Amino acid sequence: AQLYILYILLYFLHFVLTQLRNRRSTMKYIKTNYTILDKFLDAVKTHPDKPFILFREQTFTYQEADALSSRAARVLLQSGQLREGDTVALMLANEPMFVWLWLGLVKIGCSAAFLNYNIRSKSLLHCFHRTSAKTLVAAVELQDAVEEVLPSLLEQQVRVYLLTDTCQITGVESFKDKMSRVSPEPLAKDLRSHLTLQSPATYIYTSGTTAAMITHGKLWAMSFLQHLSGVNSRDVFYVSLPLYHSTGFISVTGAIERGITVALRSKFSTSQFWEDCRKYNVTVIQYIGETMRYLCNTPRKLDDRNHRVRLAIGNGIRADVWREFNNRFGNIDIKEFYGATEGNLLLMNYFGKVGAVGRLGVLTKMLSSYAVIKYDLDKEEPLRDLSGFCIEADKGEPGLLVSKITARTPFSGYAGDLQQSEKKKLHNVFEKGDMFFNTGDLLSIDADNFIYFQDRVGDTFRWKGENVATTEVADVITLADCIREANVYGVKVAGHEGRTGMAAVTLRDGNKFNSTALYRHVENLLPAYARPRFVRIQNSLATTGTYKLKKAELVQEGFDPNLISDPLYFLDEKKKNYVPLTVDIFNDVTSGQIKI
Predict the structure, then answer these.
(1) I want to staple 436 with a disulfide (CB 3.0 to 4.6 A). Which of 167, 373, 402, 489 is the partner?
(2) Is residue 550 a contact partner of residue 376, using CB atoms and an 8 Å limit?
(3) Kind of enzyme, top EC level (predicted)?
(4) For residues 111 and 212, is the Cβ–Cβ distance under 8 A?
């Protein structure tokens, strides 16, 4: 107890000083519309030769990054298609060009939409059009995905670039050769004079095709995460998570805020993770729960503690993995946080309390008006008292986390989706006329006021580090010839973070379940992480009194053939088919013998 009091006092002092500094900075930024780009350009002046991006065997200094982003901006500007405030869709994996393109777009007063490079076909087109983009820039290794939707893009007069020196595809232009022919000199600030902190900086897809608008002001708030975690100007930050997600992207913008070096990897690799940390002298790593578990599952090595990593920042780590990680790889300070890309709340566990995402205190309640409220899992809605107001959950009771929407803690909503934006708002929560952001997450607060993530509710679940929108997966499944209706939900699998996809389906009259056709269907239209691993055939799908599909009971029953009499199927990637889910397969999946 005394130790926690000391932690709280130290945290209080750190938090107050940080808030004062951030408030002064924020007021300055608001008055001058000072963006992350402006911070980057100041860093170029302050330390032009300091390494900014380390990638494979290449080193790019802040000055070189400035020149390359100016070249990228000029190529886009000289196309004659972009106007101030336009959006360009980027579809590429982690590489320095991702950063140059985003910086370049802000230099000319435009924004970027970060497409998930795993999506294809109709989902890709839907994501692209969400932000009204008229330009697409894609990596050369994604050429097949581009060609698949190219006729539709050209019909809409979209300008398409591939990051290559030459291109023979009709309607597609090369990009890198054009970069080599334009000037690296700074661009006139007038090109972005219209930008304010309320202007879109980027669009990030939070689940399926839902694009959250991130303003320049919001990006600033997200980019202070490293500072709040204790990152200093001498650190080297290792980024191996996708830049198209907020967790990966704000690691780069946070590095700009700190003026530090980023060691960037194209894709997370368990075998190369610590080798990279040693190679680049990494001191801070970024994680999600899955990456920490993967690292802990690798064979032990004598050099497991031979590294300079002192700090890990991320979310979703299980308590057992947390302990195992520290026991094996050294006493690394783990800063677990909770936040949503589109949300208006950030929680952080400063205290090292294993498993917690933060701690409820008077100060944090004053600065961020949030609450954990009672939630009816069957009806999938908050419980309300006789006056119609929500009820705060008891200590230890899982409840829905909500955060008040104010001018200081806004919710910008989703691009081109007013209905989904409104769905995230709760009205008249504690008093008439108030409005709260619905996180869609269940959390609990223990007797010591530590906050713990419990589960997700509603229409999304998380698997393999990706958010999956159940309604969008269901829409795809019902396009299969034999499927009449589909109710998609996430189920827990022992030894895995998050939930994997499962679909309860009914068949069209006169049709049998065509397992092979369904496998080909989901393989063609859904990324691997969104494909349902389990299928349950039912005679009818249960609904609520308002005809909403019931999921709570299905989630609870899971995929155990010992308990479920309905026919069950398992997605077998080796056989490229949905095969009957036997007790033996169930046991192999739950024991880890079959990897999913």
Answers:
(1) 402
(2) no
(3) ligase
(4) no
Which residues, in sequence order, are bridge partners of residue 210? 207
CATH class, domain 34-217, is alpha beta
Question: Helix (H, G, I), strand (E, B), or coil: what is residue 222?
Answer: helix
Distance (Å, whole) CA 178 – CA 47: 28
Alpha helices in 287-375 (DSSP H): 289-296, 319-329, 362-367
* DSSP notation for 492-546: --TT-SS-EEEEEEEEPTT----HHHHHHHHHHHS-GGGS-SEEEE-SS--B-TT
Q: What is the dihedral of CA 90, 94, 100, 101, to 10 degrees?
A: 0
Q: Which residues pair with 381 in a beta bridge?
A: 376
Whether pTM > 0.85 for this model: the answer is yes
Give the span between the Cα atoms of 34 and 196, in whole angstroms.
8
Domain boundaries, the chain: 1-32, 34-217, 343-456, 460-591
Residue identified by tokens 């992480």 is 529
Going from the C-alpha of 343 to that of each of 62, 150, 212, 410, the distances in angstroms are 31, 34, 9, 8
Phi and psi torsions of 491, nearest 5°: -120, 145
Burial code (b: 16+ CB inside 10 Å, e: under 16) for 365-378 equals eeebbbbbbbbebe
Reported as a single tens digit per residue, the pLDDT across 482-527 is: 999 999 999 999 988 899 999 999 999 999 999 999 999 999 999 9
The Cα–Cα gap between 280 and 264 comes to 10
Architecture of domain 343-456: Roll (2.30)
Assigned CATH topology for domain 460-591: GMP Synthetase; Chain A, domain 3 (3.30.300)
Spatial separation of the C-alpha atoms in residues 100 and 106, rounded to whole Å? 10
Collapsed DSSP state (helix, strand, coil) of residue 185 = coil
